[in-house]
Write a structure and sequence with these properties.
By secondary structure, this protein is mostly helical. It has helices at residues 2-9, 13-32, 40-63, 69-88, 96-115, 135-150, 155-162, 168-179, 183-186, 193-204, 208-219, 223-246, 252-255, 266-278, 288-303, 308-324, 330-358. The chain has 17 helices and no strands.
Length: 370
């Protein structure tokens, strides 16, 4: 029990959220669907298990003192070659898809070997709270965030399986009552290829905002700011997923009528390609592009004054793009603004409360002899 208490004491609130919400999504998928069109749950679970197994194996292989350096390198090289052959098949000239598969399979081995402590030299530094600037510390800090983003894939078929009735009519009505109609239609007179290209570019930067800010904090060794960012984005993301499940909607692009097409250039093509590859059909309410961008802007203004204006300009444009590009109803964006502000403000308080709960668990109770 002492070991279990110490393990729990090292968990942060974003670790708990990642575990609980991922398990909840798996349970929902198992209870509401017998077969998924895109097999997203099975693929997600299998990929997570594969990555965990290969990552742990690579760490053990590199760090165990029982294996000499040549044995470790030979086994590691053989595994990489075997996985590459499996991914590439027997083709002489592999295509891009084959190369991507090889990278996906080899990546956990490379990360595991890269972040593993060497032999017993790091035995005294076995704490889970290592400095973030170390590779293993960075990977540990980023893990809940990466899991929260990967969980998005699970929602592809799950949203409609759990809640099969689309609620676009609710959101259209809310726009009418609260904002006097659909702003996506009001912006039609201002649609221009250059504007479409600009908004497509800033909209596509959505995930780069938290990632680039996280790397900024890592480079400057601002771990408190990094954890505030990661925990807030994880909490905001999972609350957004609950919104998708509760209020499924396909968005104004597919439910309202427009007379001016959104024609652009290179960035527009990239955005459309990303939509076809990764976007789930019902991810409107609330707008996570808005909520998570608000979280990033809050933390930039608090912890990274040097970046304030560049993030404010690009982030504000990203939020505006959700309506200009017809992805979201205005009420989606309003809900995202409120969600982002609430999460950014409350995350440090939630983290403090969590630490008060788990910190006593790390203390070993003395044994009393009769």
């Amino acid at each position: 029990m002492t070991s279990l208490r110490r393990v729990l004491a090292t968990w942060r609130i974003d670790d708990v959220l990642a575990v609980l919400f991922s398990l909840a999504l798996l349970v929902l998928g198992a209870t509401h669907t017998s077969s998924l069109q895109h097999r997203s749950l099975l693929n997600f679970a299998g990929l997570i298990l594969y990555y965990a197994g290969m990552f742990l194996f690579a760490r053990w292989l590199v760090s165990t003192p029982r294996a000499g350096p040549w044995l470790r390198r030979s086994v590691f090289a053989a595994l990489c070659a075997l996985l590459s052959f499996f991914a590439l098949g027997t083709r002489v000239s592999p295509g891009i898809q084959d190369v991507k598969n090889a990278i996906v399979l080899i990546l956990p081995l490379v990360i595991g070997a890269w972040t593993a402590p060497g032999g017993d030299s790091d035995a005294a530094d076995s704490s889970q709270d290592r400095p973030t600037h170390a590779p293993h510390g960075l990977l540990r800090d980023l893990a809940p965030f990466l899991i929260s983003q990967a969980a998005y894939i699970m929602l592809h078929d799950l949203v409609h399986a759990v809640n099969p009735t689309d609620r676009d009519a609710w959101l259209i009505r809310a726009d009418q009552i609260l904002f006097g109609g659909a702003w996506t239609q009001r912006l039609e007179p201002y649609v221009h290829p250059w504007l479409t290209e600009w908004f497509s570019m800033t909209y596509s930067l959505y995930l780069l905002f938290p990632v680039s800010l996280a790397l900024w904090f890592v480079a400057r060794r601002q771990r408190d700011a990094l954890l505030h960012l990661l925990q807030a984005v994880v909490l905001c993301t999972y609350l957004g997923y609950l919104g998708y499940l509760a209020v499924p909607a396909i968005g104004p692009l597919y439910t309202l009528t427009y007379h001016v097409p959104l024609s652009g250039g290179w960035f527009s093509e990239i955005r459309e390609s990303l939509d076809s590859l990764a976007r789930i059909p019902r991810d409107c309410f609330p707008s996570l592009h808005t909520a998570n961008t608000v979280v990033v802007l809050w933390i930039v203004w608090k912890h990274a004054p040097t970046l304030r204006w560049i993030f404010t300009i690009l982030g504000s444009s990203c939020i505006a793009a959700t309506i200009y590009l017809r992805y979201h109803y205005t009420v989606d964006v309003a809900a995202g603004l409120l969600l982002g502000l609430l999460v950014a403000w409350s995350t440090p308080h939630i983290d403090t409360a969590w630490r008060r709960v788990v910190s006593p668990l790390a203390q070993t109770r003395p044994h009393h002899t009769p």
